[in-house]
Structure formats: structure tokens, C-alpha cells
Amino acid sequence: MEKYISGIHNYCDRWCDRCPLTHRCSIFESSANHSNDDHSDFDAISFTENLSENLEKAMDMIRDSIEKHGMDWTTFHKEAVQQEMVEPELTRMQQTIKDRAIQYGIEVKKWFDQNKEWLEDKEDEMNTKTNLGIDQNKLFKTLSDAIETIQWYNFFIGPKMSRAIRGLHDTFIAPETPIQNDANGSAKIAMIAINRSLAAWETLRFHFPERTDDLLDLFRSLAWLRRETLKLFPHIDDFVRPGFDERVLEEAGK
Q1: 136 Cβ partners below 8 Å, 6+ apart?
Q2: Looking at the domain assignment, is residue 5 inside a domain?
């Protein structure tokens, strides 16, 4: 078995601290090998060298892929440089989904900004109860995990959804891979982020039911995005993310 899983980083959520497969990811290992034990001591030279090395690896991978498909790298590169980048013309629904996914991230940040004092007060209340001998550790961790999850994905969903929609207009999608393509892969990780965000918001609502009305718009936004994404990408459940979904299939004995 090869140590690294090819393409595992393409459809992950970039949350390395919570990933069980970082040891199979060449991008993570490369970054880890170039980082200092003391993260406060930022080494700009090592950082730049690391980026350059990863860029060279990426270009080599692209070159190999181009030549594997029988194309000439020099010609491909020349045409790519000369080609004018044109944003695809989206349908009304595609544009609406893209806009609302981005807007969700803005609304989440706004909610946390507006409720900063309230969240701090709740933290103080739990600390006070802890000082009185009431164990709040489990509740504190549950709420902290929920908040961290929401904040991790709030500006993740929009860009991933935008990439997925842009992928629907990719003229390089091979007809023999109608499911295993970047559009479905990007949509799938966006959907995972939506589902995890919904679950995290429900955790907050459950423990603070008095804020239900305040959270309804955010719930509605995510529920709408979830429904419309499934309509636009009906095959995302069939997309197999390298490493992650393969691992699930293996553990299920499929």
C-alpha cells in the first residue's frame, strides 16, 4: 500500500487538526516537515521554499496528466497562457445558489459579531458554575465544538459552492466520468460542510432555546442551500472522495 493517497487533499475540508488521514496526505506531511516546533517563530524563508517546492510538484503532476492524455505540454502551456479567462454564464438558479452560499458566510460573521457579548456572558456563567463545583466541562466542550464548527465552515461553503457551479461549465469534463469530476467533488464537500453546520447550529439552539427565533434565518438559509444543491448536483452522494469515502466503503465491507 502506498503511503500517500493521490488527490486526498482535493475534496477535504482543510481542517487538518480534525482529520484522521493526515498521515496519508502528502500536502500535510510536506507542510509539517517544513514547519517549526515553535509556531510563534515564523520562518519566512522556509515558508517560501515550501511553497516553491509544492508548486513544482503540482506542475509536475499537471505535466504528467497532460502527457498521459496524449497532449503536448509545450502546446498546452502556450495555449493556456494565450487563452483569455472568461467567467461562465450561469443560469439564474446557479447564480442564486452561488450568491446565497456566499451571503450565508457574511450572515454568520454578522451573527457572531452581534452576539459576542452574549456568548462571553454564557462562558462566564459556565465558569461560575464550575467554580461552585458544578461540572460544566462536557457542556463547555459540546458548545465550543459547535461554535468552532460553524465558524470553520462559514466562509468555506461559499467558495466551494462557487467552484462546484463553475465546474458544471467545465468543457474538459470527460463524458466517461459524469460523476467522478470536480463539480460533484466540490459540491459534495460543500454539502458535508452544510450538514455539519446545520448540526452545530442545532446544538446551540438545543442548549439555548430562547434564541430559536434569532437563529431561524440561518437555519432556513442552510436548509435552502441543502435542498437546491441536491437538485443541482443529484449525483454527489455517488462521488467517491479519495481516501475519505474509500475508507468508509472499506470499513463497511463494500
Answers
A1: 126, 127, 129, 130
A2: no
Beta strands in the chain (DSSP E): none
> How much is the pTM?
0.77
Q: Are residues 73 and 100 in the same domain?
A: no
Q: Which three cell numbers stand for residue 38?
A: 515553535
168 close to 186: Cβ distance less than 8 angstroms: no
Same domain, 183 and 69: no
Give the Å distances, CA to CA, from 24 to 6, 30, 135, 160: 9, 11, 38, 23
pLDDT more than 90, % of the chain = 57
By residue range, what is the domain housing residue 99?
Answer: 92-251
Q: 209-234, pLDDT tens digit by residue?
A: 999 999 999 999 999 999 999 999 99
